[in-house]
Amino acid sequence: MGTDPTPGWYRKALCKGQTELFYTDEPGRPSSVRLAVPLAVCAACPVKEDCLTDALARREPYGIWGGTTPRQRSRMLGVDLSTIRDLSSETWRRYGRKADG
To answer: Which residue in 6, 11, 46, 85 is a FRET match for 97, CA 20 to 30 A apart?
Structure first.
């Protein structure tokens, strides 16, 4: 039997079980209205920093992580995360959500 790949911090995350809020199927950049709820959840989350650190380490190109959008993480890393497409299986494996929709 395999080990659980989900990081320990995720068990304390306020977003746990609400992945649909943190990913959008909307084309283009999500509206500020669409982002308001997930960003509010992140703002109150006790593991926000761990979440962001994990997303940056994985160069996560999808969703809201640690209170940041993919565009914000791209700027932090100095790379264009929108060109990365091979991490969807990693997101699915670790968090139970297909990153590409």
So the answer is: 46
